[in-house]
Amino acid sequence: MTTVWRMMLLLLLQLLWQASASTARIAREGCPERCGDVEVPYPFGMGDGCFLQGFDVTCNSSFNPPKPFPGNGNIEALSISLDGHMKVNHFIAHDCYDKNGVRTQSNRPSIDLSQKPYKFSDARNKFVGIGCDAQAYVVDHDGKFATGCGSLCNNMSYVINGTCSGIGCCETSVPKGLRAFDIWLWSYSNHSGCWSFSPCSYAFLADLSFEFNASMFLSYDKVESLPVTLEWAVGNKTCEEARNDKDFACVAEHSECYNSTNGQGYRCNCSQGYEGNPYLEGGCQDVNECEDEAKNQCLYQCQNTQGSYSCVCQKGMKGDGRKDGTRCSSELPYLQMGLGTS
Ligand SMILES: *[C@@H]1O[C@H](CO)[C@@H](O)[C@H](O)[C@H]1NC(C)=O
Ligand SMILES: *[C@@H]1O[C@H](CO)[C@@H](O)[C@H](O)[C@H]1NC(C)=O
Ligand SMILES: *[C@@H]1O[C@H](CO)[C@@H](O)[C@H](O)[C@H]1NC(C)=O
Ligand SMILES: *[C@@H]1O[C@H](CO)[C@@H](O)[C@H](O)[C@H]1NC(C)=O
Ligand SMILES: *[C@@H]1O[C@H](CO)[C@@H](O)[C@H](O)[C@H]1NC(C)=O
Ligand SMILES: *[C@@H]1O[C@H](CO)[C@@H](O)[C@H](O)[C@H]1NC(C)=O
Ligand SMILES: *[C@@H]1O[C@H](CO)[C@@H](O)[C@H](O)[C@H]1NC(C)=O
Ligand SMILES: *[C@@H]1O[C@H](CO)[C@@H](O)[C@H](O)[C@H]1NC(C)=O
């Protein structure tokens, strides 16, 4: 082949690759891919035939931009990720008093995801209580358990910003598999010992990165919800049990199944060297490692292959062409390696 032909062939291959890449879908064919600013990848979906059972999303366009609500609930999705996570806005509990110790504001957020394929992530959330007369609890709907923490302080000078150790702020970890619970919040003495600087208590699930500071004592009565992370999984079987079902969800070629680490169910992932949506037929596509220097180890020339890539040295040079391998040299590879390490 002449060089010109070779170049034209390369160009053609590149065009073909780009064409296939640009058709990569995240939703089922004919289904909307986003609601407002939020991408909605399959198995989630909006409209008949667009979602896997349990993963329906309602796009409410009375908001501008429109907002997605998984499972027709009242929890807004902020982002949905194919790695099994979903950020949502979750309500926070308030408990406020006036200076006579009379309660002025109180609510008990309650949530029930028990019929849904998602649960609160134990790995990415914590439970937080804020205030100087706060007893904050997560209480399981079935009455199986309650967990929580308390915070008491009678002088603002004891409160340390940035730490959450029971003086102004307390925290505890989230149990695995958490799906249906109420948040309870009460006080020992109606905030009478701390009312001037802490008239309210708050309790909520928050991202692990949440950091307390004392300005929240007064500003959080305006905060209604905070982002928390849910984990989703398909069904209630392990990969091995589900693999032979006719509705097994890892349908893409080059996809793999892995068990959820937070309760029942499984998820899918594209195999190494492939990317895309493993829940769709043809959803996992080859990664062209040669297009991105960070994805390959080639010194001189890179050739993409299905699921991988290989490196080539200049004409007349020897070696595997890899920065982490025998590199390229005009000598025998082992001599080059000897020189390189001396
Ligand atoms: C959309 O949101 C509005 C405001 O919260 C609510 O009144 C309405 O019922 C929602 N519509 C749907 C279809 O859920
Ligand atoms: C809070 O502590 C500071 C410093 O220890 C003290 O000066 C102040 O009087 C205390 N305030 C109250 C309300 O006890
Ligand atoms: C708190 O307030 C309630 C009613 O508002 C009252 O019955 C109770 O005695 C108060 N408790 C304390 C410790 O002040
Ligand atoms: C305290 O927290 C609030 C609310 O998250 C934030 O806006 C503010 O910047 C924080 N202040 C400091 C000093 O970190
Ligand atoms: C903590 O943060 C609040 C609000 O940002 C500030 O008013 C207070 O002085 C800070 N306290 C300390 C001990 O740094
Ligand atoms: C698993 O899910 C199926 C279908 O949703 C349901 O009928 C079954 O009771 C579930 N099994 C368990 C152990 O939760
Ligand atoms: C899934 O979990 C089951 C039961 O715990 C285990 O036997 C199996 O090896 C796991 N499969 C994968 C792919 O991790
Ligand atoms: C999914 O695949 C990607 C790319 O191969 C890999 O980086 C990631 O660790 C995999 N995730 C799991 C949970 O196996």
Automatic annotation (TrEMBL):
One of its GO terms (cellular component) is membrane. It is found in: Membrane. SMART domains: EGF, EGF_CA. PROSITE patterns: ASX_HYDROXYL, EGF_3, EGF_CA. Its main location: membrane. Coiled coil: none annotated. The keyword Glycosyltransferase does not apply. Keywords: Disulfide bond, EGF-like domain, Kinase, Receptor, Repeat, Signal, Transferase. It comes from Musa troglodytarum (fe'i banana). The lineage of its organism: Eukaryota, Viridiplantae, Streptophyta, Embryophyta, Tracheophyta. It holds the Pfam family EGF_CA. The keyword 4Fe-4S does not apply. InterPro entries: EGF (IPR000742), EGF-like_Ca-bd_dom (IPR001881), EGF-type_Asp/Asn_hydroxyl_site (IPR000152), EGF_Ca-bd_CS (IPR018097), NOTCH1_EGF-like (IPR049883), WAK_GUB (IPR025287). It comes from the Eukaryota. It is a single-pass membrane protein. One of its GO terms (molecular function) is polysaccharide binding. This is Wall-associated receptor kinase.
